[in-house]
Amino acid sequence: MRTMPHLTTFDPARWRAYAQGALRDDLVAALVVSVLLIPQSLGYALLAGLPPEAGLYASLLPLLAYAALGSSPVIGVGPVALLSLMISQAVAHAPPGVPPHAVALVLAVEVGVLLALAAWWRLHALAALLSVPVLQGFETGGAVAIALSQLPALLGSGARGSSLPQLLASWRETPLPWWPLTALFGVVAIVALWVLRKRAADWLSRMMPRGRAVLLARLSPLVVLATAIAVEAITRSGERGVVLVGALPALEWRLHAMSFDLALWRELLPSAAPIALVAFVSSLVVAESMARKEGTRIDPRRELAGLAAANLAAAATAGMPVAGSFTRSVMALDAGSRTRMAGVFTAVFMGLAVLLIGRPLALLPIAVLAATILVASVAVFDLQPFREAWRYDRAECVLMTLVAVLTVVMGVTWALGVGVAASIGLLLQRTARPHVALIGRVPGTEHYRNAERYEVELTPGVMALRIDESLLFTNARQLSDVVAQQLVRYPDTRRVVLQMSPVNHIDLSGLAALRALHDMLAGRGIRLDLSEVKGPVLDGLKAGQWRQWFGGELFLSHHHAMEADGPVR
Amino acid sequence: MRTMPHLTTFDPARWRAYAQGALRDDLVAALVVSVLLIPQSLGYALLAGLPPEAGLYASLLPLLAYAALGSSPVIGVGPVALLSLMISQAVAHAPPGVPPHAVALVLAVEVGVLLALAAWWRLHALAALLSVPVLQGFETGGAVAIALSQLPALLGSGARGSSLPQLLASWRETPLPWWPLTALFGVVAIVALWVLRKRAADWLSRMMPRGRAVLLARLSPLVVLATAIAVEAITRSGERGVVLVGALPALEWRLHAMSFDLALWRELLPSAAPIALVAFVSSLVVAESMARKEGTRIDPRRELAGLAAANLAAAATAGMPVAGSFTRSVMALDAGSRTRMAGVFTAVFMGLAVLLIGRPLALLPIAVLAATILVASVAVFDLQPFREAWRYDRAECVLMTLVAVLTVVMGVTWALGVGVAASIGLLLQRTARPHVALIGRVPGTEHYRNAERYEVELTPGVMALRIDESLLFTNARQLSDVVAQQLVRYPDTRRVVLQMSPVNHIDLSGLAALRALHDMLAGRGIRLDLSEVKGPVLDGLKAGQWRQWFGGELFLSHHHAMEADGPVR
Fold this sequence. Notes:
The structure is a homodimer.
Chain A: H1 12-20, H2 23-47, H3 53-57, H4 61-69, E1 76-78, H5 81-92, H6 100-120, H7 132-155, H8 164-173, H9 180-205, H10 210-218, H11 221-235, H12 262-294, H13 300-317, E2 323-325, H14 326-334, H15 341-356, H16 358-362, H17 366-380, H18 384-392, H19 394-409, H20 412-432, E3 436-441, E4 448-450, E5 462-467, H21 479-489, E6 495-499, H22 508-523, E7 527-531, H23 535-543, E8 554-555, H24 558-563
Parallel strand pairs in A: 5-6, 6-7, 7-8
Antiparallel strand pairs in A: 1-2, 3-4, 3-5
Keywords (chains A, B): Membrane, Transmembrane, Transmembrane helix
Organism (chains A, B): Piscinibacter terrae
Membrane topology (chains A, B): Multi-pass membrane protein
């Protein structure tokens, strides 16, 4: 277990232990993460359609807020790519005349409040709404949408857009389609970044141990950025139309810029809700993945509280929603982060960076930043999960693909809405069409298996059925029909035994269906018995006073039920 | 099996057999049903906010159309109470200036087309959306709403409304709150109807066999109606302000009154969809109940086709949606109906009635019709299902009550929408919180049961768990956590065996969760084995190439899995 001083209560002994133990590791990890965080935060702010400093400032206070309330020792909170994509789409659909930073500010407050409410009302289970196919499709589609959205900045076009139709429309309307000098910066940066990503670790591992080489290689984009700044300082291409990051305004309290237009707040809520869900789920995925590596457990509710605090802090100082970043968290873990204090130190380093390297950063061409985002997105793009899903379950693969395509074409809110609805639809459809097995005895054992898959013995006159689903309203109407179909094949049946081990619940509709089945069979002179009814299900049946109509017997094991069939009672 | 001539192919031999066999029974049943259908169809048209003849005409062609395409031999298609309530609510919310009959006409066409599309696309499974609590709540709330909506007509008030707030608002606005002479007709009719409903069967059974007495007693409302007509003919109270049914216009082709205002069609679609669903489900419930009594099966798709044809026929001639009526179907069955020809004869008798008794019917005070509807609704009102639901499952009882209250207060569309969403929500919540059982061996057997419910033997170092749910996206995130919680209780565990018999499906999210569990356990040096994996689930795992990461073993029976635990391999 990690030793970590409480931030709220001051205990000198624990702080001393910390200073002698984990402090150094946390400082190193914070330094490494900060170096990666500087270009990421600038780039993600631009991706969101906001001024670059918004990203830097979103990497200061939110880190402290998460460290105070969150649970994970390594999770890196701040601007993240997919959230920035969602912000840019919300900005693009905001009413005309509202500046992007005002939209993002309202979003950040709403996301913070929604997350805080979710923590209060214990709604962490809602994370389940984003199933694996939805998340995977969203990530893949998001990578494509992010890469596409960077093309204009990369080529020096004034076009903007975060979904394909927007981008095409904007591209057609923009008078200057591209600017050769900007494009030169962009394309050279892409090539350099790609080569470094593929080769840097190998090159470095000739000089140092492999682990450290891999870690350092992740910082290689910094070389490209520094080179670009140097080239810009020499050539002064900014004076010939290449757009630069520009001087960063000082950190200031942002809340004074808050809009109190209720209509705007209401209009942005449908964007804020999916942003809050994605912020929570992506942070949770990161935290879970880290916890698995560490053998620890995470508390989803504290995760919600930490994220809520981080987003409210982001609203106060930066004005853009934040979440846990996968790349930076992996980096923090690999760099040896030991406690949440690493996040505090990262915030301190970022603050120093704003003060110390603001002037060189101002010279960075935006096309080069765009190139780092594009390369990072393309590197994430992976079709392997689609191939695996296709092999496992075609319907889920179709869902995954649909979500990916909708993310690019219609925007994230649409894609997630359709994805969640379709996930629920698939689940309902599965429960609606249960697999039905006629079961028989595996010779010489007390085990009963599907007669179509195994060589089994059937008992004449007794039909043993296993219906592989709970009895729910989705399938209740079919229960009698399924049994009646089997009776057509075995017309001399005088007893039906339902093996109930797959039945995890019986709802009111299922109870009515069981009664209808019992009565239908009784009308034909056939007896209905049940075997292996689970405890909670049986409790329910008793509460429903089923003995008033049920005339059959209950057996603890299916074998007993079949053995009991001597002369018909 | 029933002998019934095909309506489409003329086969003299079969018709001759029919004429000598079932013809007489069908004729008698048709006569009895027609006698009941006359007041019902008038009343339900008024309930829907339409002129009374709409109900009569909705009982002619639709019966023929259903007989041609439907499947049930006894189901009585025509105006039904709950559908009329829904029509009246759609009429009340229609744009101002559109007359009620135009609204109902568009609804009938839309309902017919939706049902036809549902038949074509094989969407009969959508009937499952109306779970038992939703249907029961809707029926109870509907009975209350119908009874309330009849109060103004009964008391001679001009107020109108089919939901409580509408009714109260309208009542307050109406200048003349009630009319004593009308109220006299209404109240006397209610008392007479109620006494007849409670006593008529007993009185009649002194004169005839009980079965026939019960059947005849159901026709007793006719005595009240005939008396009211006679009183009206003598007192001519219609001239003193008592509203009468009035002269019936001749049957005519209605489609010429059709609105082609696309905006109206679009606006009515959200009302037509739940009407179509309710028409289908209530007819299906009737057909299922009849089929169970008869030991036959029904074909939901043919049911859809028959209803679609009936509604399109209703649109052409009457202009109101129709469905299968429970009371009239039970009556047809009890009266001995043998084939779908009974429906044809009912249509013929209804046609004769329109021609022959139109003049006396014109004298019927509407307050008396309202009294028949009110008494029929109150008689249906039953709290027993709520009590039973409370004992069985409180959440479903709350849902049932919510749907009933919403039906009265907000209208049927709202109530059904909330009900369906809440049913799905309850199902998701159930799958999200699986029951977890630590299982042990029932001494001296090969059976394994929940250690908290049975006296069982546990194997030291081996944790056998049964998670009573499929592994789905709703619960995937909790799988590792649930096992980790158990590991806290049994820290010396070196092997975990999951008994998989309750697992009916594993979706992609569940597969990822199983892999995460496997890796989490492997990280702690614990081995994961599975027992009793079902065939379809195993097929899926194999397709997902799980052997690439799964290091444990599969056992056909849980007992084998536990026996296998000699020295740890």
